[in-house]
Design a protein that fits this description.
Low-confidence stretches: none
Number of strands: 0
Oligomer: single chain
Largest sheet: none
Number of helices: 5
Order of helices and strands: HHHHH
Radius of gyration: 14 Å
Length: about 90
């Protein structure tokens, strides 16, 4: 089982790697949520980070854009986890 902080870090890295971190954070803030996004991510199943947190149809990019990004996350999250594990092994070796 993946530690929650690791999941959040992997997801944030995914957003940054795809140059959508700023768009995601802006859209999140525009929803006027009072809670912290990290707390929301920690309480959410990792497969629905994108679609669960708020109404994407109301964002500038719209639902279709974020649906595509969500599908990309679902396809790539295992690769992010494998990279994380490799990095942890390298830390132990070095």
């Amino acid at each position: 089982m993946i530690d929650n902080n690791v999941k959040v870090n992997m997801f944030i890295q995914f957003l940054k790697d795809n140059s959508i971190y700023d768009n995601y954070m802006k859209a999140y803030k525009e929803q006027n949520y009072r809670s912290n996004i990290i707390e929301d991510l920690l309480s959410t199943h990792d497969g629905v980070y994108l679609i669960h947190l708020f109404s994407w149809g109301k964002t500038n990019n719209g639902y279709d854009f974020w649906s595509i990004i969500n599908n990309k996350w679902l396809l790539q999250k295992e690769n992010y986890y494998k990279q994380y594990k490799r990095n942890e092994i390298l830390k132990e070796i070095i």
